Amino acid sequence: MQDFRKSLSFKAIEQAALMGDDLAMRDAPEESKFDLDSEDGQTNCKNYLSCLERLFQVLNVKVQPRMYRSKFTKSYQVLYGSSFHGVSYLTEILDSAQESFPHLWVNGEKYVFSENVITSGNDLFEGFM
């Protein structure tokens, strides 16, 4: 047990658990949603998501290729970075998932989400909780 506590795996798991405790929740207790509107909430969530990515690397979690991202516009490719194999979690995706909006406005154009996208977003948020 002592050897495991000294291992990189244990340190990565411990760090992820501690950073998860730092995630800020909204003030309204009935909402049970993350505060991703404030600067502190954004920063804590970004740090936590980065920590999860490191944990996956340390534990050698196999990540599915993200080749579909090569079809994204240049603006979105910049958000996700150049690697199509990394996880690259974004707080914006988590925020959209927790809000369950049926549409999104981008540059004055309305994009309506399919039922599958909304359901997948709800599943993502529930799994994250």
Descriptive key words:
129 residues, 6 helices, two-stranded antiparallel sheet, mainly alpha
Oligomer: single chain
Q: In sequence order, what are the helices and strands, one letter per element?
A: HHHHHEEH
**Quick one: how many beta strands?**
2
Q: Which radius of gyration do the C-alpha atoms yield?
A: 17 Å
Describe what this molecule looks like in 3D.
The two termini are 29 Å apart. The protein contains 6 helices and 2 strands. The protein has helices spanning 2-5, 8-21, 39-58, 74-80, 91-99, 115-128; strands at residues 103-106, 109-112. The radius of gyration is 17 Å and the shape is globular. α2 (8-21) packs antiparallel against α3 (39-58). The model has no long low-confidence stretch (mean pLDDT 83). The chain is mostly helical and 129 residues long. The protein is 53% helix and 6% strand.
